[in-house]
Write a structure and sequence with these properties.
heterodimer, A: about 130 residues, mainly alpha, B: about 525 residues, alpha+beta, nine-stranded mixed β-sheet, two-stranded antiparallel ribbon, about 15% strand, disordered N terminus
Chain lengths: ~130, ~525
């Protein structure tokens, strides 16, 4: 049986590809400023206090960060990074953490995307490598 | 055909999923503060290959913008002071990188224009105004050093032959995302004055891009989150609050909405008025002599970024054992010596100096005579005194240094530093060649000799306002060797220099006499009452 790509088929493929590209572009377009604040005030604060110093976004490449965030095995798999961005976590620490308090109601996915946007943008080969936190 | 239908179904479900996602997302329904979405403008839906192309697109709607900008110091880099001195970056000399002259391609990346590389720059050009450097919201707009403020849209090696590749920026994406100015956009230049993060001002560095409350109560990213323009309230692109036209004392009331003001909106009083201390009213008695900043900015460079406190050019030019230009770092990894620039002293959490300031600043310019016997040369100095009725005690950063001058003609040297040419000091480390080119650029004579003079410059401290609980306390000034120990012309109770030994003795003597009197009188009463019984 020979398969011929019908015009409908080609169109669908095109549209599909387009929508994937669009959503990928969208995914990287979080609010980097909110991501920056959360990164500084939640991630870095814990790292400085408990985990041997801050982790600057520019210490890794975009590809490394993307892989790291997709694998999501934070601190050798002890708990997923998503947990530290979740509303539940924010609710737990908001009494002592102003960022968690201010962003208490931001949906998990959205805030995670913000943090991701900041990390990718600030990566070693990102658009705006970020060293100081 | 069946695959086609399948694909269509997949596509439909994907669209549905993303639609559902959007609907479940409460923020997507949030009201946009702007009435326009720049991605929708035809003029911005094109690939841009240069900055001026973007500006042309901006001007197609914002027709008057460049004309407004042409009137600003941000564009002209020139300002005539009320005292008649011609100032602005084009004309002043400082004790950091000294002067933009002959170094335009490097320094002028912080000009809000494209292409100012030498005297031929066209200051009447509308398309050479750089809209994006102030209105970028992506944080990705870059003006690399050496390209006279131009941007890079295709990867390029710079300097040529260096192997250093400058990444291109996506002008279309940046142009479609324009918005209001922010701490990030203003900071892209103002945090980096003097050639690096925090170098020049001491109260402005990259830590203010996203500061916490302890660093700045107003700009606190999780609190009031002021942008620069919240205080530097701008109309028609004319940004108020320039250091060249400072307001040392504001006797006006807090600005009220709707009322027209000609006074500077950036002062503390423009919001807080004349009697801001509600709980301890005694503090309001200080405001006629002490600037708010003196107590409310207890230290500068508090955000973890060091500022330069001293810069000695005279030691430049040393090579390391490897024959390459020497670089030295301190224990924290801060650079404290480079062959290109000489020795630095850096400071963090610095206690300011305090001076009377009436808003007038005098400058030593290219054309002024400088005597080596009369040191330090004051690159600029704040005027004011206790008795002039216009001065307050201000916190300042004093920048000290040693810089090149022509000992025969007795003028501060304009030095050609940056540039990949035979005369640039940063390439060749030859003072005579570099100064010859610099002096020629301003039409000044040069004897061929280079010596060094010690210099001082003064910078107002006005950002990094701390929370009230961290403001200075009474004893910080009302004590021996307190913060204001050296401020002349005013009586400050408790201060060592206001301490008169004879007054103390006289006071104690009076107290002793009073006690004696009371005791004597009491004793008399007792005796008399006993006798009367």
């Amino acid at each position: 049986m020979t398969k011929k790509l019908s015009s409908l088929n080609v169109l669908s493929l095109c549209l599909l590809a387009c929508s994937l590209v669009a959503s990928a572009a969208h995914a990287a377009d979080g609010d980097w400023k909110r991501g920056r604040v959360y990164y500084q005030k939640v991630c870095t604060e814990c790292h400085t206090a408990k985990a041997g110093g801050p982790i600057a976004p520019n210490t890794r490449t975009m590809a490394d960060w993307t892989k790291y965030l997709n694998t999501d095995k934070h601190a050798k798999g002890k708990e997923p990074l998503k947990m530290y961005v979740s509303r539940e976590y924010r609710a737990n620490i908001k009494a002592t953490n102003k960022a968690a308090e201010k962003y208490a109601d931001v949906p998990d996915e959205q805030l995670f995307n913000d943090v991701k946007t900041f990390m990718l943008k600030g990566a070693k080969d990102g658009d705006s490598p970020a060293s100081c936190l | 055909m069946r695959t086609g239908i399948f694909m269509a179904a997949v596509l439909a479900s994907m669209l549905l999923v993303s639609a559902a996602h959007a609907a479940s997302d409460p923020d997507s329904a949030k009201l946009s503060k702007s009435t326009s979405d720049h991605t929708k403008f035809k003029a911005l839906q094109q690939e841009f290959n240069s900055g001026p192309e973007v500006t042309k697109a901006c001007l197609s709607c914002h027709t008057e913008a460049s004309k407004q900008l042409h009137k600003t110091e941000h564009w002209k880099w020139e300002y005539r002071s009320p005292e008649g001195q011609l100032l602005g970056k084009k004309n002043v000399i400082n004790n950091f990188c000294t002067s933009i002259r002959t170094n335009e391609a490097a320094c002028n990346i912080c000009h809000i224009g494209y292409g100012w590389k030498d005297d031929t720059f066209d200051f009447t050009s509308e398309v050479n105004v750089d809209c994006l450097v102030c209105h970028d919201t992506t944080g990705n707009y870059k003006k690399p050093a050496g390209l006279a403020g131009n941007v890079v849209t295709k990867a390029m090696e710079f300097p040529p032959g260096s192997g250093n590749i400058i990444k291109p920026i996506d002008l279309k994406k940046i142009a479609q995302a324009v918005g209001k100015t922010s701490r990030d956009t203003c900071g892209a230049c103002h945090f980096y004055g003097g050639g690096g993060d925090g170098v020049k001002h001491g109260d402005m560095d990259s830590s203010l891009a996203s500061p916490d409350q302890a660093l700045d109560v107003h700009m606190d990213a999780l609190g009031l989150n002021f942008a620069c323009a919240t205080c530097h309230m701008t109309e028609g692109h004319q940004v108020p609050g320039s250091r060249y036209a400072p307001t040392a004392q504001d006797k006006g009331d807090a600005h009220v909405r709707g009322k027209e003001y000609t006074s500077n909106p950036t002062t503390c009083q423009a919001c807080h008025g004349q009697a801001p201390h509600k709980k301890i009213a005694k503090l309001n008695d200080h405001t006629d002599k002490v600037a708010c900043q003196a107590c409310h900015i207890p230290k500068f460079a508090r955000g973890g970024v060091a500022t330069k406190m001293s810069w000695d050019w005279s030691t430049g030019g040393k090579m390391g054992p490897d024959g390459k230009p020497l670089i030295k770092k301190d224990a924290k990894g801060h650079v404290i010596y480079t062959a290109a620039k000489g020795d630095f002293i850096l400071g963090e959490n610095v206690v300011p100096d305090y001076q009377w300031f009436n808003g007038k600043v005098g400058y030593t310019l290219f054309s002024d005579k400088v005597e080596k016997s009369d040191q330090p040369t004051r690159i600029n100095h704040f005027e004011g005194s206790a008795g002039d009725g216009k001065s307050l005690i201000w916190p300042v950063k004093i920048m000290r240094g040693k810089q090149a001058f022509d000992p025969v003609n007795k003028r501060l040297a304009v030095v050609h530093t940056a540039g990949n040419d035979d005369t640039g000091y940063w390439t060749n480390f030859n003072w005579e060649k570099a100064v010859a080119v610099g002096m020629a650029s301003i039409g000044a004579p040069f004897s061929g000799k280079v010596d060094f003079v010690t210099t001082e410059s003064t910078w107002p401290i006005t950002h990094m306002v701390a929370p009230a609980k961290d403001a200075l306390r009474c004893h910080d000034c009302h004590a021996s060797n307190g913060r204001l120990e050296k401020v002349p012309g005013i009586y400050i109770p408790g201060r060592a220099s206001d301490h008169a030994g004879w007054l103390d003795t006289a006071g104690w003597a009076l107290a002793a006499l009073t006690l004696l009197g009371v005791l004597g009188h009491g004793l008399g009463r007792v005796i008399v009452s006993k006798r009367n019984k």
